[in-house]
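Could someone model oxaloacetate ion with this protein?
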Amino acid sequence: MTTPTKGLEGVVAAESSISSIIDDQLTYVGIPIDDLAENASFEEVVYLLWNLKLPNETELEEIRKALVENMKVPEGLIAHLKSYDLKSVHPMAALRTAVSYMSLYDENPEKLDRESNLKRAIRIQGNLGAIVTAFARLRNGEEPVQPKPEYTFAENFIYMLNGRAPKDIEVEAIDKALVLHADHELNASTFTARVCVATLSDMYSGITAAIGALKGPLHGGANEAVMKMLTEIGEVDNAIPYVKDKLANKEKIMGMGHRVYRNGDPRAKHLKEMSRQLTELVGEEKWFEMSIKIEDYIKEEKGLPANVDFYSASVYHSLGIDHDLFTPIFAVSRTSGWLAHILEQYENNRLIRPRADYVGPEHAKFIPLENRE
Ligand SMILES: CC(=O)SCCNC(=O)CCNC(=O)[C@H](O)C(C)(C)COP(=O)(O)OP(=O)(O)OC[C@H]1O[C@@H](n2cnc3c(N)ncnc32)[C@H](O)[C@@H]1OP(=O)(O)O
Ligand SMILES: O=C([O-])CC(=O)C(=O)O
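Reply:
Sure, complex below.
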């Protein structure tokens, strides 16, 4: 048996037409992420990822309407969310459970043809937005807000979170963040989703598994951890002593480093600029200034770049979003990518089952219970 590659680093485990990272450049279906971040709405990206082409005007309007329709919060789901211990449960745990619960209301989740799966994908994508916003409101003692038919996905997300009309700058920031987080080749949560559905399990199982993988602080959970770190640092002058201390204790600096990018995550600069603008707008420039100091120091000392999670933290914080909702927002966006990969996996499926290099004891004897220490 060959020696395993720790963490599967550099291992090519699938063919995919959805997104690529080549020479530190990210594309969705061949389109550079910078072009999408500057010009595309989240709905356009969702359509692109699922159909491998940009939508025309009619197709775009159709998918926008279908997503909004599915952002309506089903009564049963609200009742289910209300049954959680809302004050103590983490929203990622709530989301993971709620998506699994959704499958109970699908007439036949095992019907896996593309048409059924595309309908299901719309339902899952829309409902994700509804679950996160409804959960956020319910735990504050507020009733969930239903989506407005004329709004985009990003507009509705903000509206359903805050219960008031979204501001232009909020829509710009959330739409951009949703576009930037939508897909990322074979990251840990997407791989998880593909492994899960490659057993021919259903889409809800794939998304539930993926949410579980995204939740961890080495992956999507890092954005919440970045804000925890910035809050602990408190003031700009404390930033360098804080990270020096962490590095001296062999602790990781959240939002820094990446398995694939060596010279920088191309998504980070868009969020960095958004963070600059938003922190200035709310008069809390310190979060941006602290972030720059940390980014420069870690680049200099460790040669590590800031990843997508780093500046998204100060962006969401400036929008007044609760810190534990940062990763759920990532999940709402990445669901579009997970669904695209699930569709792709079903279309050319083979069970994913690697081998392990056994390093445990050999020729061990069975000891009867009464003789064990
Ligand atoms: C959307 C996303 O998922 S983006 C990633 C989000 N995660 C984070 O921001 C968490 C912080 N970053 C990390 O933990 C890592 O950089 C990862 C998980 C993203 C990538 O990890 P890997 O490719 O496995 O690198 P690994 O953890 O093996 O680190 C390699 C070396 O760089 C160091 N290193 C990597 N990231 C960091 C960091 N953030 N802070 C300090 N040191 C780091 C490691 O300590 C290790 O050093 P060593 O060789 O002296 O032991
Ligand atoms: O690709 C990765 O390993 C992590 C990442 O940046 C993402 O999922 O967006």
